[in-house]
Predict the structure.
Amino acid sequence: MPDIKQITAKEWAEQRVFVDKIRTYFSMHKRNNTPLACVRTFGCQQNVSDSERIKGMLSEMGFGFTESPDDADFILFNTCAVREHAVDRVFGNVGALKAIKTRYPDTLIAVCGCMVQQKHVAKRLKEHFPFVGLVFGTHVVHQFPELVWQSLQSRSQHTVTPDMDGVIVEDFPVVRDGTFKAFVPIMYGCNNFCTYCIVPHVRGRERSRDPERILREIGDLVQAGYKDITLVGQNVNSYGKGEAHGIDFPELLRRADEIEGDFLLRFMTSHPKDATKRLFDTIAQSRKISHHFHLPVQSGSDRILKEMNRRYTREQYLSLVSYARQVIPDISFTSDIIVGFPGETREDFEETLSLVKEVGFTSLFTFIYSPRVGTPAASMPDPVDKAEKTAWLQELTALQQEISGERLSKLIGTTHRVLIEREAEGYLEARLSENSVVRVEGQPELIGSYAEVEITAARSWIIEGKIHSVEPK
C-alpha cells in the first residue's frame, strides 16, 4: 500500500488564510450583492461528492451559488475522463464560457477533476482556452483556496496537476446539493488497472478513510434528516485493504446499518473480483441496506475479460449472482457493459448477450469502447468498425429493454415504501429499494417524503404508480 498522507490541522489553518484573502478580494470584485459561484459537475458520484466539498470551501470564502454561468463571478467545471464523449462535452461547455469572460473580464473560470489530470488535456486547455484562469487535478482539491488565490494573482493560466497518489482529507466543509439524499466518500483511487480505464492514472492508488469518521458522517446526516445515503468510491468492495484498523467493506456496512434512524443505505461502485459471499450475507441480514447491487460485468466473454484485466471469469460472476439471489431473493442487479472492446468478435459479443439473458439485469449502462490515452487498450488492434459496434450496441439495448419490461411488469399490483425524490415532466419520481424508478401524480411539496405506492403500470425503463399514503416529513 502507498504511504497515504493525512492533511494536518496546521495545513488546514494555512488554507484558511487564503480563504480570508479571497473573501476580501471578491467583496470588492463582484457583480452582485453577494459574489456568486456556478459549479458544474460531470461524471460519477465521486465527482459530485468532490464538488460538494469544493462548494463548502467556496461558501466559507463568502460565495453564494447560482445555476447560471452568466450570473457568476466564479465558474468551475469538475470534469470526467472515463469516455471521449464526456471530454468533448466539457470542452464544448468550456468554449462557450469565452463570451462570458469577454463581457465580464473579472470572472474567474476554473476547470478541475479527472479530465485535467491528463497531461495532454491540460496542455490543450493552456493552448486553446487561455481565458480559463485555473486548472487543477484530483490530488490537490484540499489546496483549493491557495490555488484560487494564486490564480487571482497570476496574469496567465495557473495549472496544478501533480503526479501523486493523493491524500486523505477530513473535516472538509460541505455544501450538499440535496436535503434528503447524500453521498459519503469512503475511499479514493483504484488499484485495479483495467486495460481500458483511465481512473487509476487520474485518481491515484486506493486509500480508505477512517471508519469512525465515515460512521460519524453518516450519523450526522441521519440526525440532520437525510433519508437516502450512498457510500461512494472507485471500488467500494476493496475498502480497508491494508489498513491497520482491520475494518473491511462488509464490516463497515454492518456498523452503518446499526446507526439509529430511518434511512436507506446504498453504495457505488463494486468490482466483481472483490464481491464476496460475506458481503451478500451482510446485506441479507441488514435492516437498511438497499437490495440493489450495481455490479459492472463489462463483457460476457472470458477472453475479453482477460484482455480487460478484470480478474474474474464469466462463471465466477454468474456464481456471485446466483448466491446473492439465494440469500436476497428480491435483489436487483444493474451493470455496465462495454461494446466493441479492441479485438472483440461477434462470438465474444454473443457471449455477452447470453450472459445478459441469464442474469436478467434490471437495467444496463452500455457504451461503445472509447480509447483513453495512456491505457494499454488504446494501443490494441481494433479491427471492428464503429458502424458494426453501433449495431451491436443497438442489439444489446433492445435485448435489455425486453428484459427490463418483463421484470418491471412483475411489479404491477405490488406496494412499496418509497422516497419521493424529484419532479419530472409533470410527475413526481420515486425510487424503490431495488432502484427502479416509479412515477406518480402528486404535488411538489411531497418531495423528500416517504410514501406507500402501488405499482399500476410498467414500461421497459420506468414504472407508474399510485400513492396510497404519505408519511410526515
The mean pLDDT is 93. The CA atoms of residues 340 and 389 lie 5 Å apart. The radius of gyration is 23 Å.
